[in-house]
């Protein structure tokens, strides 16, 4: 299963490129899917430790607002992505020092609370954030190159794809390192870690900071793609959406979040176009079917089709 | 068996009204196998929990290699060379036995390398070597949640040994091990520990195991040490026989009718 992962990743990337060429409007949908997939990598990490965060939209929104705020001063997509990643990482460290002390429902709810605090700030501090009107993000140069709108959209799609692959590889290495395996140990035997001399809280905190960084990167990409940020990015339903995608895709491997995000966005777009009033029901039914018949998510399903076993 | 490795002095700890430690004084000598026996609730596990930092005594001191360790965190105490195994094995259930061992080896060396794999040859070799010595090589690839109780117990101890402790505290290493396998398991365990020059303190309910493997026995009773000495002497003590062994060696024997 782990062996076919790189092949599947390349196939998936090729399919996305082909789809983006064939249907330009899909390019937008797929860039958003990649951005969300990157953010969901963080959810998947925390799921490894048996923890569900219902507040990771906080980091997505934070990354998006970093782009919106800094774009006038730091007008380059690459620099803004770096700024969003670092900013979200620092915020994740600050909040992580607090929430990494908690587990299970308390962990989930505290994250939700932080996320909603940020939402309220974005809504209420109108003179800074322009409240629910949000902030527009203009087309910006990429790595010093001024681009027209189409070239810009292609560039962001390309960056999102490259980041998805790069971060996927890095996190795959991380998960199979002692640090990553200890993270999985938090789920089953946290006390044992302490009696082996491993600070479990430090292990979880590292994963939390990584999850915040990828959340910030995902958010920055969303801001650059939709080119408009609003407080809704930090609303609790946005956090729920990330968890939804993680479960839909499966937490077994780094490809799961991207399978989940692609499926989620495509179902959403097609369902909304065909059954305007019922698209949420269709998404719900899709998740229900996955939970009932493929507990390992789409990734687990892909694994079974390939004849291997999911992790 | 020469110098004092671990010294407990005047340890006291009460849970509500129950005195789990009521003035424990004990010196563990380097190299010895010290058995702790006594009825349930006598405070045997509490002593292990205090020594490994899981519980903090309300008063008294524990010194290890001349250094005060009272109240230190478990992971700091582990780093000094004191490891423990558990009455209920604490394995990473979603990992294989080999991964469990490799993780223990890795944590001894420091796990903070996020990009190098746990499956690196050095860790795997050491894990396999340990599994070999514990007679667990055949189940290296089995997930921990699929093991029988005996194997689980041994794997749990192997993980503690992987930390290369100088002092190993084992909480009932043979409970749950089938009676027919018990002696073989302890034989294996004793051999591994002697080879690795590990000092061992173990809680044990089987007096045959104690007689055969312990250099000294400490009898726990209501948070105190009621007797301490070589097994032949202590186990022959009529008071110990009446209070501890009488109950444990022949649990099925009906009490003598009153005259």
Low-confidence stretches of chain A: none
Characterize the quaternary organization of these chains.
heterodimer
* CATH H-level homologous superfamily name of the largest domain in chain B: P-loop containing nucleotide triphosphate hydrolases
Helix content percent band of chain A = over 70%
The percentage of residues in β strands of chain A lies in under 5%
Q: Quote the beta fraction of chain B.
A: 15-25%
CATH architecture of chain A: Orthogonal Bundle
Secondary structure class of chain A reads mainly alpha
Counting DSSP E segments of at least 2 residues, the number of strands of chain A comes to 2
Helix content of chain B: 25-40%
Protein name (chain B): ABC transporter ATP-binding protein
InterPro entries (chain B): AAA+_ATPase, ABC_AA/LPS_Transport, ABC_transporter-like_ATP-bd, P-loop_NTPase
GO cellular component, one term (chain B): plasma membrane
Pfam families (chain B): ABC_tran
Structural features, described:
The complex is a heterodimer of chains A (311) and B (259). Chain A is an all-alpha fold and 311 residues long. Chain A has one domain: ABC transporter involved in vitamin B12 uptake, BtuC (Orthogonal Bundle). Helices cover 76% and strands 1% of the residues of chain A. Chain A has 13 helices and 2 strands, in the order H-H-H-H-H-H-E-H-H-H-E-H-H-H-H. Chain A has helices at residues 4-22, 24-48, 57-70, 77-99, 104-124, 126-129, 149-175, 178-195, 200-226, 236-249, 256-274, 279-293, 297-305, and strands at 135-136, 228-229. Chain A has a two-stranded antiparallel sheet with strand order 1-2. The longest helix of chain A is centred in the middle third of the chain and has 27 residues, at 149-175. The mean pLDDT of chain A is 90. By secondary structure, chain B is an alpha/beta fold. Chain B has 2 domains: 4-91 and 147-249, P-loop containing nucleotide triphosphate hydrolases (Rossmann fold, 3-Layer(aba) Sandwich); 92-146, no CATH class. Chain B contains 9 helices and 10 strands. In chain B, the strands form 2 sheets. In chain B, strands 6-7-8-3-9-10 form a 6-stranded mixed sheet, with helices on both faces. In chain B, a hairpin with a 2-residue loop joins strand 4 and strand 5 (67-68). In chain B, helix 3 packs across helix 4 and helix 3 packs parallel to helix 5 (149-162). The longest helix of chain B is centred in the last third of the chain and has 17 residues, at 179-195. Mean pLDDT of chain B is 87; it is low at 249-257.
């Amino acid at each position: 299963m782990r062996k076919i992962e790189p092949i599947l990743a390349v196939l998936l990337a090729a399919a996305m490129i082909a789809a983006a060429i064939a249907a330009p409007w899909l390019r937008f949908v797929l860039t958003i899917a990649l951005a969300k997939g990157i953010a969901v990598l963080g959810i998947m990490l925390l799921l490894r430790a048996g923890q569900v965060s219902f507040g990771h939209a906080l980091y997505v929104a934070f990354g998006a607002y970093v782009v919106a705020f800094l774009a006038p001063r730091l007008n380059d997509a690459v620099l803004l992505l770096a700024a969003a990643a670092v900013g979200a990482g620092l915020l994740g460290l600050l909040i992580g020092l607090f929430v990494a002390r908690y587990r299970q429902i308390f962990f989930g709810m505290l994250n939700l609370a932080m996320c909603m605090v940020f939402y309220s700030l974005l809504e209420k501090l109108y003179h800074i954030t322009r409240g629910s009107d949000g902030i527009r993000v203009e087309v910006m140069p990429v790595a010093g190159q001024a681009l027209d709108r189409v070239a810009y959209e292609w560039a962001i799609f390309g960056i999102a794809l490259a980041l998805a692959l790069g971060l996927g590889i890095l996190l795959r290495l991380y998960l199979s390192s002692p640090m990553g395996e200890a993270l999985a140990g938090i789920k089953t035997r946290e006390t044992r870690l302490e009696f082996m001399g491993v600070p479990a809280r430090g292990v979880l905190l590292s994963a939390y900071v990584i999850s915040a960084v990828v959340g910030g990167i995902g958010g920055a990409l969303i801001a650059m793609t939709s080119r408009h940020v609003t407080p809704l990015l930090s609303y609790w339903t946005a956090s729920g959406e990330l968890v939804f995608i993680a479960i839909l895709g499966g937490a077994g491997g780094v490809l799961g979040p991207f399978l989940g995000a692609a499926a989620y966005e495509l179902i959403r777009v097609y369902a909304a176009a065909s059954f305007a009033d019922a698209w949420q029901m269709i998404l719900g039914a899709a998740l229900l079917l996955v939970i009932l018949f493929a507990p390992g998510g789409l990734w687990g399903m892909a694994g079974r089709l390939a004849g291997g076993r999911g992790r | 068996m020469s110098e004092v490795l671990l010294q407990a002095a005047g340890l006291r700890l009460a849970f509500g009204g129950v005195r789990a430690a009521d003035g424990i004084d004990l010196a563990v000598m380097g190299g010895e196998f010290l058995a702790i026996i006594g009825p349930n609730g006598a405070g045997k596990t509490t002593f292990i929990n205090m020594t490994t930092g899981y519980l903090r005594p309300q008063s008294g001191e524990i010194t290890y290699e001349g250094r005060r360790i009272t109240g230190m965190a478990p992971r700091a105490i582990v780093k000094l060379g004191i490891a423990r195994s558990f009455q209920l094995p604490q394995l990473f259930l979603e990992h294989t036995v080999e991964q469990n061992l490799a993780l223990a080896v890795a944590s001894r060396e420091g796990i903070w390398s996020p990009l190098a794999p746990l499956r690196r040859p050095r860790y795997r070799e050491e894990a396999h070597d340990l599994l070999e010595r514990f007679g667990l090589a055949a189940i290296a690839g089995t997930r921990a949640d699929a093991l029988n109780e005996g194997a689980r117990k041994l794997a749990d101890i192997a993980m503690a040994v992987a930390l290369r402790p100088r002092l190993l505290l084992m909480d009932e290493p043979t409970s749950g091990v089938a009676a027919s396998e018990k002696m073989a398991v302890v034989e294996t365990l004793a051999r591994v520990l002697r080879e690795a020059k590990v000092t061992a303190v173990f809680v044990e309910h089987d007096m045959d195991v104690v007689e055969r493997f312990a250099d000294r026995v400490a009898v726990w009773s209501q948070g105190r040490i009621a007797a301490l000495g070589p097994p032949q002497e202590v186990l022959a003590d009529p008071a110990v026989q009446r209070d501890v062994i009488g109950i444990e060696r022949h649990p099925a024997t009906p009490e003598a009718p009153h005259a």
